[in-house]
Write a structure and sequence with these properties.
single chain, mainly alpha, Farnesyl Diphosphate Synthase, two-stranded antiparallel ribbon, 17 helices, 2 strands
């Protein structure tokens, strides 16, 4: 299976014009009497990002026969919601970098970053209310609940080597897949398709989201900081037992498991005492075990399986340009290098 980044770029080109309108709609939501809100908003919206979620909504709506103006507003709300979660995530994770630039938390502090995230949540919600579709509103509000729940579930089991695959999936289904599923389903709702077709689009987004997050977790172990735009091995430093480590824990010896537990205990101690994160040398035993048991390679294989399920979910839809663009986006999720 191969899907070069060029294929994904071509998929985005199909929605270039409406994506520009989405960008404009988001920036219009930054209007505030607070200079900080405007500054934080400009910083996060100017920091790049693939705009996968609004692009997916635009393409899903087109696949379902709708290309009207409502999709711009709903897509902008979805991306504002995503931006709000990034602001809060950086505070929760104490992340100094976001996409290779200082995070809002690093520039303005925790309190301002959290409140700016709240502002983004509020503006995104207002846009959905203004759209007026109760089905879209329900999907949107349920997604906010799921994402918050996913963050808490992850925090509950940080630094815990006994995390199961079921728990890992419960986290990423909520934190990552839920919003991509919502974007796809909202596009289907705008297209006025049947409940069954709407479910297929939601499943496509969910599987795409799972693939995207698993690939992201694998990249944390294999890519350099200049590619990631953040410090390497961040998940391990923060005590997050993601799939590469989880698979290795299932396969390793008792002695190797103790070595990983020691690394996680060191990370937990640094976190509890609010000290600087563990140094690379402290992480070495766990990194060597992940490499020995092919944690990264098998995680990528799992991501490919989710892409195949995503493709199968929309197989019954007519073969048109929007469908091909969505399939290219799905394939990119499993092979991307950043």
């Amino acid at each position: 299976m191969s899907a070069p980044p060029a294929a994904f770029a071509a998929a985005l080109e199909r929605v270039d014009e409406p994506l520009e309108l989405v960008e404009r709609a988001m920036r219009e939501q930054l209007a505030s009497e607070s200079d900080v809100i405007a500054a934080v908003g400009d910083h996060v919206l100017s920091s790049g990002g693939k705009r996968v979620r609004p692009a997916l909504l635009l393409l899903a709506a087109e696949l379902c026969g709708y290309t009207g103006p409502r999709r711009v507003q709903v897509a902008a709300a979805v991306e504002l919601l995503h931006t709000a979660t990034l602001l809060h995530d950086d505070v929760v994770d104490h992340s100094p970098l976001r996409r290779g630039r200082p995070s809002a938390m690093a520039l303005w502090g925790n309190r301002r970053a959290v409140l700016a995230g709240d502002f983004f949540y509020a503006r995104a919600s207002s846009m959905i209310v203004e759209d007026g579709d109760l089905d879209v509103l329900w999907v949107f509000s349920n997604t906010i609940r799921l994402m918050a729940e996913g963050e808490i579930l992850q925090l509950q089991r940080s630094f815990d080597p006994s995390v199961t695959e079921a728990h890992y999936y419960a986290v990423i289904e909520r934190k990552s897949a839920a919003l991509l599923s919502a974007a796809s389903e909202a596009g289907a709702i705008l297209g006025g398709v049947t409940r069954a077709e709407r479910r297929r689009l939601a499943d496509f987004g969910r599987e795409l989201g799972l693939a995207f997050q698993i690939r992201d977790d694998a990249l944390d172990y294999e890519a350099g900081s200049e590619v990631l735009g953040k410090e390497r091995w961040t998940d391990l430093r923060e005590g997050k037992v993601t799939l590469p480590l989880l698979l290795s824990l299932k396969r390793c010896t008792a002695a190797e498991r103790e070595a990983i537990e020691s690394v996680l205990k060191t990370a937990a101690r640094h976190d509890h005492e609010e000290r600087q994160a563990p140094a690379d040398g402290d992480l070495a035993p766990a990194l060597e075990i992940v490499a020995r048991y092919r944690g990264v390679e098998d995680s990528v294989r799992r991501a490919v399986e989710h892409v195949e399920r995503a493709s199968a979910a929309i197989a019954p839809f007519p073969d048109n340009a929007a469908k091909q663009a969505m399939l290219a986006a799905a394939e990119f999720a499993a092979v991307r290098d950043r």
